[in-house]
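Sat 14:20. Reprocessing the chain from the morning session after the first attempt stalled halfway. Input below, unchanged.
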Amino acid sequence: MPKDANRLKLDFIIIFIIFAFAVISIYTLHFIEPYLSASVSGQNLYLKQMFWYIVGGAVAGAVMILDYDRFRSVAWILYGFGVLSLIGLYVLPETISKVVYGARGWYQIPGTTQTIQPVEFMKIFLLITVAHVITSHNEKREIKGIKDDLWLLGKILLVALPPLLLTAGLPDLGSAIVLTCIVSFLILVSGIRWRILLTIIGVTVAAVGAFVGLYLLFPDVVKDTLNETIFQHVLVRLEAFFEPQQNTGGSAYQINNAMLAIGSGQLFGKGFSEMEVYVPVLETDMIFAAIAEQSGFIGASIVVTLFFLLIYRIILTALNCKDPFGSYLCAGIVGMITYQVIQNIGMTVKIMPITGLPLPFISYGGSSMLAFMMAIGIVLNVYSRRKTYMFDDE
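Finished this time. Tokens:
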């Protein structure tokens, strides 16, 4: 029988990691203030980030209080609200639906300078809904055939496609890829046969490889095609990634300067408040470059290690959870955090194209911070309600 059934347990390692991220984020934003662009310099972003961490901590606590199984009863309500919030970005006037860097992905709160990015919360809503769909499907079938697996895959795609297409059309391809990663991780742990999964993986790899091959072999054709779509910004990022030397003063300026900043930090860094390389959008997309320049390889390695440890703890929580729904929630969160960390750090060292995704828990941003703190609240919720039994190790 369960023991300590009424006592909530906390994963203090995860809590410590989030606290460490808060310190790193606030200190970094404080010391890079003089080096930011004129549009954001002098706004005391570190104080705003401190505020978002406090609010995010309260949100995480609120999420952790409710039994995570109750999320299933409101999954479709959350999903519907998220999809409607994305549709609103298309139909509402620009005084409300704000355009930033060419993407119409923010709501402007009337009477304030604050904005809300609904796709950040859609990540959590989609995660909960797909986890619910997989759990419900598997509960009804003790023995599953290949038709059941294909039907489950079809249901997942039907749920995932509307927010994916709406997000990509904003255009916000980076966030659309994050949504894809969340769904992909959930599919991997859903129990679908590996022959189906390997087929999907093979087709995906072939499609990406074909696109890269076409760009390298016929760049003019790909460029002309992209220029006729809403994804012109993708072309700029591809040029910065594949042709950085030909675009040093244009599309590759940001990534080249980010690499200079990281390299100039060397082993121990230049120290806080000591920066020599200007990098655009340093407070969000390129904050890892600031950390590496100020604290060097040592500081950057500490940040990467903390992320590895966080992801490990979430995976451990998923493996130890005896409820499939809780395990699926953790798996989706692993996909969300892992991809954004790899993408953000990867683009600053030029092993990934620039997509404009923030570094979780460290980059400045209210919507992103609240969404990730909600995710941490869910993980702590699952961890605290793990049932242990008389003969378990714990």
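The CA atoms of residues 28 and 339 lie 22 Å apart.
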